[in-house]
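Hey,
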Amino acid sequence: GYSVAYRILDAQYSLPQRRKRLFIIGCLGENWRCAAAVLFKPERLPGNSTKSQGPAKNITAEIENSSGITVYENHATDSRIKEVKVSPTVTRRWGSGGNNTPLVLHHKSNLIRKITVEEAEELMGFKRGYTNIKFKGKPAANSQRYMALGNSMCVPLVKWIGQRILMVEEAVNG
């Protein structure tokens, strides 16, 4: 049989974005601690409580030329706009129009714009230009690039899980 552990992880401890996702790990065998060791540090297993990892990163650090800017969450359904320090979840809808993308206000020029695809790539932990590929023989449209980002996982979280799997495998198999 298999043992299984699950945990909801939020990208905001490695990226300035709220992105909660459920991760499920299964390990061959009946010892649930093996699966749990991938998703939880040993000191955080049942019976051990520690303080949180600290505050989330600030989104303005990921925006190009970020001094003197404010980022706003943009609610398309009711025209609400509110200032945020952590980006809302990058979704596939950001490229579909209709005020789905957060806004950036540059105080010096009073210009307002949407977060660019390249900035969204960085919010997911990818390098700028990562989604700039050919699609049907032409450069991918921004809407396709936002869609790809909204459907992906945050790079630092996936990397962390991969490292934890490797660590547990090495500990178990020597």
